[in-house]
Amino acid sequence: MQTLVTDRPEEAARHLNRGETVAFPTETVYGLGADAFNPEAVAGIFRAKGRPSDNPLIVHVASPGKVGEVASEIGENARRLIECFFPGPLTIVLKKRDTVPEIVSAGLPTVGVRCPAHPQAAEFLRHCKHPVAAPSANVSGRPSPTDWKTVYHDLGGRIGCLLRGEPSTIGLESTIVDCSVEPPRLLRTGAVSVEALRELVPDIQVATTCKPGEAPKSPGQKYRHYSPEAEIVLVETPPPSLPADPPAAWIGLSTPPAGAAKSLHCRDMDEYARVLFGFFRTCDAEGIRTIHCELPPEEGIGRAIRDRLVKAAGRG
Ligand code: TXA
Ligand code: MG
Fold it and tell me: What pLDDT score was predicted for residue 34?
């Protein structure tokens, strides 16, 4: 398959409306989209990514007012969250309409809905005839892509079109809140923080990790995720030095230890979130075997960074 690369949202939407898979930028990470109401097109997403078919997809809408095109019930909590955080880096799980095909929801009675704030994504979605089902645009198991070249590296030749944009400004996937249950449950941390959610929904339950023997609340919880090939070492405080052989890398908020073959000293947590997945990818490309990652404070987007680090280390 030939992958067309374009800067024009309208052209990308034309490909999607024809039943093709189209990768597009959002403020969180790049997504791989298909017409949510066309099951054959959606099957193309699973094929291109090598994604397990029991892992449901998030459906993207062009504006907050279109959530009702895929959700059958929008309760008071969901309404409040939509009003405050849409468009933005938040996904809300709601009871689905019958028109949403089983392949999108992986057989669940619910659907995850997101309205991205990214201007190119918004324009692309406006030109799409229907809502767009889209997971992150990576080969399953790899870190989510935050720039178009990485998408092309993973999926070039396997998708119809790639809408080229700037690198994602947030760099981590959206926060997911399940509003189909009472009280609502946080399923994945992201840039919309637990603190911010609690201001609107004080009784929200945090269910982002899956305990052994317990059924996963979000099917995505049971898969190993976000992993680079290098081994991830989680660090609470930086050691004075790293061994020089084999070469090891460092990323974190503190000054890098001596001996790091490659390092990234992030000014703040927003920068840490933005550069993390790209750093994993560069380390792999350069043959670095171990990445020492400093765990940031458990507040704001720090919780989401910690979550992705723990998962990348294979402990999630
Ligand atoms: O920021 C994002 O959310 C990006 C961009 C492209 O929008 N998308 C993304 O999609 O990260 P994906 O497929 O990589 O992650 C979606 C997660 C999966 O863990 C999936 O199990 C969960 O959302 N999910 C989707 N629908 C769900 C549902 N109905 N109930 C519970 N979890 C759901
Ligand atoms: Mg993903």
Answer: 98
